[in-house]
Structures are given as C-alpha cells and as structure tokens.
Specification:
single chain, 341 residues, alpha/beta, Rossmann fold, Dihydrodipicolinate Reductase, domain 2, eight-stranded mixed beta sheet, six-stranded parallel beta sheet, 14 strands, 34% helix, 25% strand, globular
C-alpha cells in the first residue's frame, strides 16, 4: 500500500520542489493526501487542485490525517516544536534546510531521532545531481588541493530572510547548500575562520544581515578552501558553485546546471540530468518503505552537521575568532568522500 504523505508549509519551496515531485511520484510508492499552512486561502487552493485534505493546524493534521510520512518546508526559526510532535507520533519526516535556527536545538532533535530509530532527512537536494556523482568519481583519483565556493546573487524575496534572528543570514539559510556540498565532497571541517560586511543593502527597510561574507574552512584532512556568500546584486550574473583545483585538472561546478572538467588543453562539459526534487523525495519515500535511512543522501543527523558548519561561520563572524563546528551525533551520509591525507 502506498505511503500517505502530508506536506507542511506551502511557500516557495513547496511550489518549486515538493508539490511537483509528489505529482511525478510513483503512486504505488506514495501519495500526497494532505497539506497544511497557516494561510487559509493558499491551503484551500492547493488542496482543491490536488483533491486532498486541507489543514491550518499542524496538530490536527498529525492527529487526523493518518500520515505515514511528513515533508516539512517552513522557515528556520519555526522549526523545533513541530519536529518534537512528529517524533512523538513516530512519523518519518523530511525537512527543508537548514534544520533549525539554533544548532543546539537541532542537535537535541537529532538525538531524539537517533533514540527513536526514526527515518528522517534534511533537504540538501544538490547532493543528488549527476554532476556531483561525476565530481566525486574524479576526486577519488585526483584529490582536491584547494577550492573556492560561491553563492553570490540577490535577496530571496520573503520577509524573514533578511532578519538575523529568523533566517540567520544568507550564509546560514542559502549558502548552507554550498557548505553542505563542501562536506559531501571533502569530509568534515575542523575549524572555520569567517568575516562579513554590510552597507550595500542599507536601502532595504528592516535589513539586518550581512551583504557578503567569506568563510575559510580547514578540514580534518588538512584541506583548506574558502566559500563566498553575497546577496547584494541587483542585476547579475552571479555565481553558484565551486572551482576545485587538483594536481591533474580543474573542476568548474555550476550548481544545478553543469560541470566543466579541464585537464590541460582538454575540456569536457556535463549537464545535470537529474530531477532533483523528485530524486530527494523518492529517496525519502524509499528510505521509509525499506526502513533504511541510508537510502537518503542527507539523513537528519548529517544535515545537522552541515547546519553546525553554518553556525560556526556565524560565530566566527561575530567574534572575529576561529571556531570549531559543534559535534553532532550520528554517522556520516552515504557517499561521503574523505580526501587522501
């Protein structure tokens, strides 16, 4: 029998990823049966479109909808109590990144997930790109010497994103994808040194976060690389991805688009061929059906490890000092690549 799935939160991430993915999902595996959002008009429209149940209260949803699994897409500062209620009911869940606004609270939830033996994951969908698999294959034979990462562009147009206590800043809410990819490719980070700047977005009312930041990561292997964030651009082009330098070549990763492999005079270009939203939701569904968390590339504890990295960047910018990411319980994700020493 197909899993009964509920979707909590009907903002942009639901419209761009999870709703289209659930439409394409193998109906013998899982079906979307209910949606929940505090916006009554939005939830009514979505429920009517898909012929499913509508809720504006998560407690009612969890008590009445007989869910086998839940997908959660809400702002970072609203996480916590909802996960507690889901865990109490023993419902497997998949949440959008970052896992929480507070790293300490996320670690607490990670321990509850581990203790309950529950299938849970975090939405680092970029891990599923075909170009990422190709990069990992390349790096196994030719380890990275150093790298530069980027997420430079404009502001994500939702009110909470520019509030420090809600979204945490671009490095925390958006470039977390880039930090996560660095971990996925190169292993765990030992220390972070970060700086930020302001002033370019002073014309935006209520703006509280950095306009740009740079974070140098020192990995347990000894590898070092720097990741830049920027949300000051009014017109592009920006940059989202990595430049990775190896002994025998260079990788230019254009996130969610393509990979360029350069070796001497040779250049090869590879497009991403994976529907990322469908891939991440299918991996979660398969993990629940097979009771195997390793079916996902970003289990909850490993997603919290990427949150710990963003939190360390915040702390380093605030103090001006090097910061070690907090220790998070749980194993590394499947496909985790540790570079040669």
């Amino acid at each position: 029998m197909a899993l009964r799935v509920g979707l909590i939160g009907l903002g942009g991430v639901a419209r761009w990823t999870h709703l289209p993915a659930m439409e394409k999902m193998d109906k013998e595996k899982a079906q979307l049966v209910a949606v929940c959002d505090i916006n009554e008009k939005t939830v009514a429209e979505v429920a009517a479109k898909y012929g499913i149940e509508a809720y504006t209260d998560t407690r009612r949803l969890l008590d009445e909808a007989r869910l086998d699994a839940a997908i959660v897409g809400i702002p970072p500062h609203l996480h916590g109590d909802l996960e507690d209620r889901i865990i109490e009911r023993g419902i497997p869940f998949y949440i959008e990144k970052p896992a929480h606004r507070s790293i300490d609270r996320a670690i607490e939830i990670a321990r509850k997930v581990e203790s309950a033996g529950l299938i849970a994951g975090v939405g680092y969908l970029d891990r599923y790109q075909s170009t990422v698999d190709r990069m990992k294959d390349f790096l196994r034979d030719d380890p990275c010497g150093t790298f530069v990462g980027f997420w430079v562009g404009g502001i994500y147009n939702v009110p909470w994103w520019i509030k420090k206590d809600q979204g945490g800043g671009q490095h925390f809410e958006q470039t977390t994808h880039t930090f996560d990819m660095a971990r996925y490719l190169f292993g765990n980070v030992r220390e972070v040194i970060a700086r930020g700047r302001t002033g370019l977005n002073a014309d935006i009312p209520g703006y509280e976060i950095e306009d740009a930041s740079a974070a140098t990561l020192v990995f347990e292997s000894g590898l070092m690389g720097t990741i830049f964030s920027g949300c000051f651009q009014r017109t592009g082009p920006g940059r989202n991805g990595f430049e990775i330098f190896c002994r025998h070549g260079k990788l230019e990763f254009h996130n969610r688009s393509h990979l360029i492999v350069r070796q001497g005079q040779e250049e090869h270009r590879y497009p991403n061929t994976v529907d990322l939203a469908l891939a991440e939701d299918t991996a979660f569904v398969d993990a629940v059906l097979q009771k195997d968390i390793q079916r996902m590339r970003s289990p909850y504890p490993d997603g919290v490890k990427s949150l710990a990295l963003s939190a360390a960047v915040s702390d380093s910018m605030a103090t001006g000092l090097p910061v070690k990411p907090k220790v998070v319980p749980g194993p590394a994700s499947p496909g985790f690549l540790t570079p040669a020493r």
